[in-house]
Specification:
Largest sheet: 6 strands, antiparallel
Number of helices: 3
Helix content: 10-25%
Number of strands: 12
Oligomer: single chain
Structural class: alpha+beta
Number of domains: 1
Shape: globular
Length: 186
């Protein structure tokens, strides 16, 4: 009986170690820089109470944004540019490395809720660019489904032969019930 308890305890510990080892790291922006069409520049920290107001005004088009820069604690910078009609650029940069979201995806994105733009990657690495993959994850649009906005996931993965991250796929996650979501290709 004592051996069975020891074996069960051992497997239980292995289970928790495995669960912890496979967790993703999620980083929220630390600071936001918004550049508007009227040349106004607003710089906010993630804790600034005005952030929600500015983000809501950008989404509702009350404020005409031309560029947003989001900075992360780990050094990554995400830049989004808007030409007045469409998003013309969405890229992530870390030191001398840069990855862009393809134009065909950008044309489909209507509104970006910048305060929700998180970076997600394997917790095995301190920096997104050092991981074998990373995601840009954020809410889009203005229509809520079961009181939640859709989430867009932009996945960048190492290419098979070169270890260079490339845009891999884009999915949209929508709430389809109180406790159910569905993922669609975007």
């Amino acid at each position: 009986m004592k051996n069975i308890k020891s074996i069960l305890t051992f497997f239980l510990i292995l289970n928790f170690v495995n669960i912890y080892a496979n967790k993703d790291r999620i980083e929220a922006p630390q600071s936001f820089k918004f550049i508007f069409k009227n040349n106004e520049v607003i710089i906010l920290k993630s804790t600034d109470i005005r952030l929600k107001k500015y983000c809501d005004e950008i989404v509702s088009r009350k404020r005409k944004i031309i560029e947003a820069q989001l900075r992360y604690k780990t050094g990554e910078i995400i830049t989004a540019k808007y030409d007045g009609k469409n998003w013309s650029c969405l890229k992530i940069r870390y030191k001398n490395k840069e990855r862009n979201v393809p134009k065909n995806i950008l044309r489909k994105i209507t509104q970006i809720h910048f305060s929700t733009l998180n970076l997600i990657w394997s917790s095995d690495n301190e920096i997104a660019f050092n991981s074998s993959y990373f995601l840009m994850d954020f809410e889009v649009g203005t229509v809520k489904y079961f009181n939640k906005l859709p989430n867009l996931n932009l996945l960048f993965e190492d290419s098979m032969f070169f270890g260079n991250k490339k845009f891999s796929k884009c999915t949209l996650q929508k709430q389809v019930g109180e406790n159910a979501t569905q993922i669609f290709a975007f």
